[in-house]
Amino acid sequence: MREQAMATVVDLFERDEEIALITADISLDFLRPAVEHDPRRAINVGIMEQSAIGVAAGFALEGFHPIVHTLAPFLTERPLEQLKLDFGYQGLGGLFISAGAAYDYGQSGGTHHSPGGVQALSSIPGIEILLPGSPAETDSLVRTSYANGRPTYLRTSVVENAAPVELAPGGLTVVQRGRDVTVIAAGPFLSRTLAAVDGIDATVLYATTLVPLDAATLALEAAPAAEIVLVEPLYEGTTAAQVSAALAHRATRLLSIGVPRRFIKHYGTSEQHDRDLGLDVHGIRERILGFS
Amino acid sequence: MDTAPATQELLDLIARSSGDEKHDASSFSTLDVIHMLYEVLRVDPRNPEWQERDRFLLSKGHGPLAYYAVLARNRFFPPEELERFMTWEGILGAHPDRLQVPGVEVSTGSLGHGLPLAVGVAYALRARDLLEQRVFVLTGDAELNEGSNWEAILHAGSAQLANLTLIVVDNRSSNVAMGDIAERLRAFGWDAVTVDGRDHEQLRAAYEHRADVPTAVVARV
C-alpha cells in the first residue's frame, strides 16, 4: 500500500499544480520524481514533524492541496496539536498519508507502533480517517480525497486483504448478508475476519472510512440479531462509540476486537504479534464464537 | 515624520475596547511594532484576500488588542467592533480567529504555530511566482521557548527563504534566558537586527531591509 500511495501521489502531483507535497525525511526515494518535477512545491522539511504539518498548512492557506507523508506515530501522535489547530481549527484541507501502521514495525518496539493514532486523530472535529485494505483501494482513496477540503488521514499498512473490494461511496461496504451476527471489519482486517466467520450466518460490513463511519448504511444493513462485532487493527474499541450511536434506536450487544491497550514488548513479525494479541483468524473466531 | 498622532489614535481605540484586558502589558508591547508594520505592509482592507498582498501572521495571539486596534484603524472592520471585545456578540476573541476577523491571516493562541505556518506560506508564494510579496510573522521572546519555532528557524535558514521576516517582540518575558536573540538567529543563517521596539524609524528601516536569506527584527520594548 505504501508504494502504491507514493506512486499515486507522484502521478497526481505531476498532473495537478495545486498539490504541495511535504515529507519529513521519509520515503524520499519514492517521492524523488515529484521533487524533480517541481521542487517549489515538493518539500522535505527534515526530521521535524511539527513543522511538516505547519508548513503544509501554510501551503493550504494559499489554496494548495497539501499532502504530508511520514511514519504513523510521527504523523498522528507527535504533531497532534498541529493537526488540530493548523488544519482543523483553521478550516483547512490536507491529506496525511502514513506508513507503518499499528505494529507493522514489529521488531522496532513501542516507539514505532501506533495502534492509538486513529483514536487520537478522531478528537479533531471534521477529520476524515481512511483505512484502505489493498493497493487498489489506496489508489482510489488517495485520488478521491486529496482535494476534499477536509483534513484527511489515510493509513497504509504492510497488512493487506487477499483481494481489493469495490468500495461503496460512504466507505462502509456490504460484503455478505446473514442473520445471526453483524461483523464490521476495518481496513486490512477484512480477509481474516471473513475467514473467522466461515460457517457462521453473519452480515459482514467492510469499513474503509472509519471517521465518519457510515451510520446510515450500518443502521440499514445490520442483521436482525442483537450481536454486533467490531474488528479493527487499532486499539480495542476505537470505533465502538460510532457503532453504538448508529444503532442507538435498537437493542444491541457490542463486542470490540482490536489491539489490547498495553505496550507491546516482544519483537517479531506482524503474524507473530497477531497470534500473541489474539488477532489472527483463530483468535478472532474464538472471540466471536464465545460472544454469540 | 511625526507618528505620534497615529499612536494616540491607536491608544484611543484600545481604550474603547470592552473588558479589563486592555490594561495588560501584553496589549501594548506590540503596539508600535504592528502599527509600523502596517505602514509598510502592502494590504487592501477592501479586499483582504487580495492575492498580491503581503502576509502578516500574528503568532503570538495573546494580548491582541494592539493588533485589533491597528486593523480597525486600517478599516478592516469598524472601530465599534472593539466595544464587543471578548463578548458573546463580538468577533474579537482573546485570541484572533481568521474565520471571523477580516484581515486576520491565521487563528492563533497556542504558541509556536505561526512560524512553521509562515514558512509554508513563504514557500507557497514562491511556488505561485509571487516573488515580490513578503511574509511577516510576529512571535514573543518567551514564545521562542517552544521547540517548533526552532525547527522552522533551522529549516527557513537552510532553505534561504528570503521572502520571510520574523519579528520578535522582546519584552524579556521569557523565564528561560534567551541570550542575544538576533545572534542566535544569525547562527541559524538569518539576517537579524535588534531595534528599539518603540522607535518608529528604526522599525520602518528594519522592515524595509531585505536580504538573500530570511530576515529577523528583534524589537526590544
Mind explaining what this structure looks like?
The complex is a heterodimer of chains A (292) and B (221). With 292 residues, chain A is α/β, with parallel strands linked by helices. Chain A is built from 12 helices and 12 strands. Chain A has a 7-stranded mixed sheet, with helices on both faces. In chain A, strands 7-9-8-11-12 form a 5-stranded mixed sheet, with helices on both faces. Chain A starts with a helix and ends with a helix. The mean pLDDT of chain A is 97. Chain B has 221 residues and is α/β, with parallel strands linked by helices. Chain B has helices spanning 4-16, 31-40, 65-73, 114-127, 147-159, 181-187, 200-208, and strands spanning 55-58, 135-140, 164-170, 191-196, 215-220. Chain B is globular. Chain B starts with a helix and ends with a strand. In chain B, 48% of the residues are buried. The A-B interface holds A 20, 38, 40-41, 43, 45-46, 48, 50-51, 53-64, 66, 81-82, 85-86, 89-91 and B 98-99, 105-107, 110, 112-113, 115-128, 147-148, 151-152, 154-155, 158.
